[in-house]
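Let us practice reading a record.
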Amino acid sequence: MLDTPRPFKQRLLSLPYLGKIFSVLASIKNTPKTQQRTQQLEQRTQQLEQQLELQRTKMGLLEQQLHERQQIFKLDMARVLARKQDITHDAPAAPLPRPLPNHLDDLYIAFENQFRGSAAEIKQQQAKYLPFLAAMAQNTAEPLKVLDIGCGRGEWLRLLEDYHYQASGLDISQTMVDFCRLEGLKAEQGDALAYLAKQADCSLDVITAFHVIEHLSFEQMVGLFDQCLRVLKAGGKIIFETPNPENLTVGAYSFYLDPTHKNPLPPATVEFIARQRGYQQVDIFRYNPRDEVGEATPLVEQWFRSPVDYAVIAEK
């Protein structure tokens, strides 16, 4: 009768001396002193892991603070450049000092930095528009020519350059323009309507303006739509983003946090203007739903949780 094969561990233990070694090791492992030492090592390991995680968190905060200080330094440099230009073009000094022309500009920049969000957050939000440009780029061998009106700190310009589009920015703030230039971005200072009036017909593929049209009067906004239509190539697009007053919290409160805003613009109004001024395809896209605590009734869902921003994307 054949012997039944023994398990591998049992065969190991049957070897000379090896079984005794295993027994000694097992007895050492199970001694109170060894168990206590093992527990101490495990506790120490956990403490070291916690300290390592804490150091990683601190390092992340330090990197964030360093980035913020770099941004502040660049803004300060941009302000110095802007004031240098003011001094260069000023008339002879008056007997009494007057406020610098960009003193309110500095205040508004500080306001935007506090309420609009970090550069990384804005880039993340604006990245959702890249697929629209990618679809257009498939139909041309040349890089898309994009003008960003109200370019601010240049978050969108940086995204466009990352995707190899031919991007330029325009802003009424010389400080913001200098900041963009310090970042290596192409930007000019000027009024949007005056700038567009100097551009050739059918010379741009895309014109963007993020949170700009709510700063304009009705006449200025209509003029902006008209000038963009003239300057765009056939098949070119405008992308205008603005606060969405369909959300009552936006229409009744947060819109007015910015003292330079004119009037809330319902999506239907902006869509109507775009169609009436000659754009062939006009679409409204609503973005950034508002989070509210608790369950929502249909009315709350409609008026308070609706997206806080929308974009009109219109094609020539």
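A brief commentary: The two ends are 93 Å apart (CA to CA).
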